[in-house]
Amino acid sequence: MTALQRNISFVTLHSNYINMTPMINRQAQLEQWLARCLNTSHFKLTALCGDASFRSYYRLQYDDNKRIIMNAPPAKENLHQFITIAEILNKHQIRAPQIYAVDEQLGFAILEDFGDRLLLGELNNHSADVLYKQAITTLLAIQQCPTEQLPSFNQRFMKQEMGLFSQWFLDAYLKLELSTSEKTMIEDTFSWLSAEIDMQPTVFIHRDYHSRNIMICNDNTDERPGIIDFQDAMAGPLTYDLVSLLKDCYIQWPREQIISWLTFFYQQSELAKQLSLADFIRAFDLCGLQRHIKVLGIFTRLYLRDNKSSYLKDLPLTLNYVVACLETYSELLPFYQLVQQRIQLP
Predict the structure, then answer these.
(1) Is 264 exposed, middle or buried (0-12, 13-18, 19+ CB in 10 A)?
(2) Which domains are assigned to the chain?
């Protein structure tokens, strides 16, 4: 047992003491906690780029070790859910970060360091086919994980997510004034879309399975990609994570290539084969539409509420995915016409 492992219970016992000192800022709390975990104050912290949440990350270096520190403010983030999902994934041979120490009350965790090689940075015309097929193989394994401990990605939840589109993208960002009939049409479309997606087989879904959350690890003895940012996992539709991967909001591939990778997934999934390939493609497209409608709301909320403007550059691709689906399916014609006539990005 390492000194780090020996001190996990000690740190937890002393959390209340640290919480009694409100004048100590978050950074000082973290350094104090690490000193207790590591039994030393000789360590180095380097801030890493954050994500779309309230979490922040550091690279920890001490002796010859490198680790990742997660700073998840308890009032904003659910560290317990992260721990639960990490345990499920690792138990089923999915490479999630090992957790070396954690304090749920403070919202700090010491995690395995997968390095800096995001899938996004490794993709090119020569590497993409191999890397995507590896990611799809991992996804098929993720879908075998149990869902009993996960919340349900049901129709009500889907409509709540798509409500972000109306609230933040249409109202707050574009400042559109919609008529009563337009609002009703949007609500009816969201209800229809949720019902269609809800008919898909239910599996374990990561919910953000894309090129920024899949890592090419530095360990040559283990070729499995590292999976991160999985704390929002739910029990949901079969095509959801495949959409996140192949209709990625940060990189675009030709439709023919997407269908090729989709077919690779389809051929290996017994659940997918419950549908014809054509019906599976339709299910994939509709699930993508729900996701991208939500993402338009999230990206603009990040800008307007959280002062994170970097996501605005990803709006055009996300909106392009929406339009491409709307113009493909006749049931979505009224929504397509509204988007074409009323929506124009600044």
Answers:
(1) middle
(2) 3-112 (3.30.200.20), 119-342 (3.90.1200.10)
